From TrEMBL:
The keyword Transport does not apply. InterPro entries: ModA, ModA/WtpA. PANTHER family: MOLYBDATE-BINDING PERIPLASMIC PROTEIN, SULFATE-BINDING PROTEIN. Pfam families: SBP_bac_11 (PF13531). This is Molybdate ABC transporter substrate-binding protein. One of its GO terms (molecular function) is molybdate ion binding. Keywords: Membrane, Metal-binding, Signal, Transmembrane, Transmembrane helix. SUPFAM superfamilies: Periplasmic binding protein-like II. The chain crosses the membrane at residues 9-27. The keyword Cytoplasm does not apply. It comes from marine metagenome. One of its GO terms (biological process) is molybdate ion transport.
Length: 182
């Protein structure tokens, strides 16, 4: 089974939104001061590729220094709530945003992209999966999902497994990762 995950449309959406936010922020900061503007971005690790590309282009400009902290969105939200300094928070889900919003730690929010849950397997995976029942019948020993306490994609995966009433049969096989990249 091969699942294709085309990132181009998603990366383009992320890129446009991030560029607009960073441009607005940097424009206001650079105009207020002639010294180097420092921008601290807390970003879901699933956005790392596109954020790094944009960061590189901005850092080549005069008076801009961007530092990025990548991790699971929930983990980043807890760090911000504990006092970590972040100018921009790019979350992969709404729960971390809502958590910060309820704590009055957010000045404004915007939805800039959507995502979907996918099943990824190695190239030598020879099973043809067409529906959820096919997943239940797979002879697998382990399945990995992001930890629901650290990353929204883990919440989504757990919710899907519960919705199809297969969480109980799979939970002993699950290995929790810190985020989507682990």
């Amino acid at each position: 089974m091969k699942l294709l995950f085309t990132r181009n449309a998603l990366l383009l959406s992320f890129s446009i939104f991030i560029i607009l936010i960073i441009l607005f922020f940097l424009y206001s900061e650079v105009n207020r001061s002639s010294s180097v503007s420092k921008v601290v971005v807390f970003s879901a690790i699933s956005l790392q590729d596109v954020v790094e590309e944009i960061k590189s282009s901005f850092e080549s400009q005069k008076n801009v220094e961007i530092s990025v902290n990548y991790s699971g969105s929930q983990k980043l939200a807890r760090q911000i709530a504990a006092g970590a300094d972040a100018d921009i928070f790019l979350s992969a889900g709404i729960l971390p945003r809502d958590f910060l919003n309820e704590s009055n730690l957010v000045s404004s929010t915007s939805f800039f992209a959507s995502n979907r849950l996918v099943l990824v397997a190695s190239e030598d995976f020879s099973y043809d999966i067409k529906n959820v029942q096919d997943i239940i019948d797979l002879p697998v020993e382990r399945i990995s999902i992001a930890n629901p306490e650290l990353a929204p994609v883990g919440v989504y995966a757990k919710d899907v497994l519960k919705y199809y009433k297969i969480w109980e049969s799979f939970k002993e096989k699950i290995i929790f990762a810190n985020n989507t990249r682990d």
